[in-house]
Amino acid sequence: MKFQKICVIGLGYIGLPTASTFANHGVNVTGVDINPNIVESLNRGEIHIHEPGLHDAVANAIASGNFKAARQPEEADAFIIAVPTPFQENKFGEYNGAVFKLADMRAVVSAAESILPFLRKGNLVILESTSPPRTTVNLVTPILARSGLEAGRDFHLAYSPERVLPGQILRELIENARVIGGVNPESAEAGRELYSIFVKGEIIKTDATTAEMVKIMENTYRDVNIAIANEFSRLADKFGVDVWEAISIANLHPRVKILSPGPGVGGHCISVDPWFFVEAAPELTPLIYHSRQVNDSQPEFVVQIVHRALGALSGKNIAILGLAYKPDVDDLRESPANEVVHLLQKAGANVLAWEPFKPDAKLQGITMAASLEEAIEEADALVLLVKHTEFSNLTPEGLAGKTNAKIVVDTVHGWNQEAWKKAGFQFHCLGDNKTKIVNR
Ligand code: SAJ
Fold this sequence. Notes:
With 440 residues, the chain is an alpha/beta fold. It folds into two domains: 5-86 and 104-208, NAD(P)-binding Rossmann-like Domain (Rossmann fold); 296-438, 3-Layer(aba) Sandwich (Rossmann fold), CATH 3.40.50. The chain has 17 helices and 15 strands. It has helices at residues 15-23, 36-43, 54-63, 106-115, 135-145, 169-175, 185-195, 208-239, 243-250, 274-280, 286-296, 298-310, 336-346, 372-377, 389-392, 396-399, 417-422; strands at 5-9, 28-32, 67-70, 78-81, 87-95, 98-103, 124-127, 156-159, 178-182, 203-207, 317-321, 350-354, 381-384, 407-410, 426-429. α1 links the parallel β1 and β2 (28-32). α10 crosses α11 (286-296). The longest helix is centred in the middle third of the chain and has 32 residues, at 208-239. It is globular and about 70 Å long. Residues 130, 162-166, 218-219, 222, 226, 259-260, 262, 265-267, 269-270, 325-326 line the site of ligand SAJ.
């Protein structure tokens, strides 16, 4: 099977890098998006996503003549669906009193429907969007059957999740192992042929539902691991221990790898995907459900620490350093920092936030500072929420004279507490209550 022309539907964080990588490997690619602004700006060579290397990759793809953006799919040898699967805004599931979020699959449904007029015998359709188990078989297959063609018999259909890390997408797309789950073995083989155009990592073939589970299992494993780290941070606080020291010692054990605690879990993957298991089988997922609860309530723990450090929060000026969901990215989606700010405001604090990767962000109810200096100048306390390299490099000497604050709360173990204490700051680190409780 030869793939000369493909359509990639959805030009977001995954679709656009995938489309441009195929185009830069000689495939003729039509990238499809329902947002006319994205389509027009891409055709002018402008990109709407901050990802290292992506601007050049798209520019090359356009210059080569292999890539164009459009509002509608066209006939092609293969169709890749890479649209978002967010939560439903106003609808929740419930099981035995436990309330859980539900996936909004409307974008997958309309992407699959948009292919219908162009689907031909011998085509390959790949779903990449993270989806609840059995989506390919139970949701996508019946939609595509409306073409009169049958998946697995007349055309190939497979699920192949992306597993790339934001910030390293272009490299990981090529180097990571890739799983391809077909509705039948021939579909998985067709998917392998397609991705082997650029994937250098191992390509593993399996069935569609296994591939769907693999993707959600990976992110759920990470979420549960972070939840236990967050719970350890609360225990360490209670018992007068430095959780960071304790975790680093525990991780010397050859079979232990505890992740890091922090202000909570954000982003569009790890804080979302575990709910797909809970939704699909709430009776089987108490651990996954409670891990989500622990991570979602970590901002409250942060606020308790700030409260302990500052006393009553009412009327206090707090500088928030970092709103992104993780270090060195500009993505503020589902960021726990957002929740920390809202909780501090609810307690009466005046909060000014500084996010170097998106200084102009417009977030409901959050006042953004125009610079680090503005954020910290009048502050009573500095609260570090994201370990951006630029923040890790800050030193108390560097800030001397620029802030009124005498109190620092570090929620990510980003700063050297001795240096800050030496410079006269009161230093509080999430999960490190070692120096506060005597009588050890
Ligand atoms: N976090 C912690 N402690 C840690 C590690 C992360 O609190 O020790 C927090 C981060 O600060 C962030 C959140 O977890 O708020 C998620 O960050 P992340 O770096 O773990 O993951 P993502 O969401 O950027 O990307 C993940 C990756 N999955 C895995 O590593 C298993 C990526 O490979 C996936 O492609 C991506 O989800 C996705 O699209 O599903």
